[in-house]
Amino acid sequence: MIDIEQDLTFESSDKIVIGCSAGPDSMALFDLLLKLREKYHFQIICAHVNHNIRKQSEEEERFIKEFCDKCQVMLEVMKIEKYGDDNFHNEARNIRYHFFEEVVEKYNANYLMTAHHGDDLIETIMMRLVRGSNLEGYSGFHQTLDMGTYKLVRPLIYYTKEELEEYDQINKIPYYIDESNHKMKYTRNRYRKNILPFLKEEDKNVHLKFLKFSQNLQEASKYIEKERDKALHEVITSTGRIDISKFLQIESYIQKEILYYILEEFYQDDLILVNDKHIDLLKYLIESNKSNMQVNLPNEIVAIKSYNEFYLKRETDEITEYEIEFSTYADLPNHHYIKLIDETIENSNNICRLSSSDICLPIIIRTRKIGDKIQVKGLNGNKKVKDIFIEHKIPLEARDTWPIVVDSSGKILWIPGLKKSKFDQQKDKKCDIIMKYC
């Protein structure tokens, strides 16, 4: 018997987005939610990503549409048209979760649920142990994550894939099998085929032991993060760099946690590209007797020691200047993005509300230019963009790729995350363009 109510409480006002691939795991979760809907009368929204790499992908999309129509469930579909040169699985995951977040925001949902199960957790932990990570990384993934306006929940974490497939068979739930799950060229599949069977022979409930292991690491990680943050406050300079003399005075383990934290700030969704070998390399750099030294990291990140300071910077030779015509979504070289949204109650500097009648379309996102000035909202006259960067203590290396949003006449409309111009509309005023910086 599969029960997903044990750690959750449901209300009729709930709006639940389910990430559904049409595979056996997500279809089992879909069916469980449909049964709970009869009891609690909440709303379900299905989010499906067509990865567009298999012929079967189109058939799966049609199947999901027909299933949702039959069950009277709202459906949102995204088709990935092209991929970059990065790790396919990592890139696909990033695209998926950006899409899921957009669906959550569109429907103002309070839950996002995915069908990750106990076997997935074992595989993730084993892969991280071999690859190298910190405590948080070794824990695999969380059962529940508070994302602020909603919760990301993996309610099937107590169950194995075999149990979910058995549930599908008993309840006659249709699903599709992704053939790539059997290809041994993928790392996760090798763990799935070679390691999991051995562990389950030792203990059929080994997934619950791994879950306990994960939870213990997460609790320890929370405590360590508090200690890291205290130390981080002491060693970071006003320019966002590390004071090496102060850094060397703190405990070695907390030093490593600080370095992981800094790498995460730079790599964000691409953190899979770095491991504990890179941490050791950074520690070697910091502890070196040389006054000036640098090492290269993946994705054109450079770690630099300059006398008593240590910092990371992105090699921007190829992206020091960019100009993007904005329509609905723009990926930015600083690993952020700007997207068009329908509505929001947020009023921070990450949101900009514009009226197309006040500006000259199209909207352009570009890098800063010498002499840039903005008419800051609520202030008379112009202010230099350079001065705004200084006031917000933006590092020199970050300023060259920081997005500047302008209209086609060159008027600066917004410096995302920092300042809005006089063209930004109040929440209660008419506007037909709402942009969000993420």
Polypeptide structure, described:
- The structure is a single chain.
- The relative contact order is 0.08.
- This protein has helices at residues 24-40, 56-71, 88-107, 118-131, 135-138, 161-170, 187-202, 206-235, 244-247, 252-267, 276-287, 385-391, 396-399; strands at 15-19, 43-50, 74-79, 111-113, 144-146, 151-153, 242-243, 292-297, 301-306, 309-314, 323-326, 329-331, 337-340, 351-354, 363-366, 373-374, 383-384, 404-406, 412-415, 419-420, 433-437.
- The model has no long low-confidence stretch (mean pLDDT 89).
- It has 13 helices and 21 strands.
- The protein folds into three domains: 15-209, Rossmann fold (3-Layer(aba) Sandwich); 236-314, Uridine Diphospho-n-acetylenolpyruvylglucosamine Reductase, domain 3; 323-437, 3-Layer(bba) Sandwich (Phenylalanyl-tRNA Synthetase, Chain B, domain 3).
- The chain is an alpha+beta fold and 438 residues long.
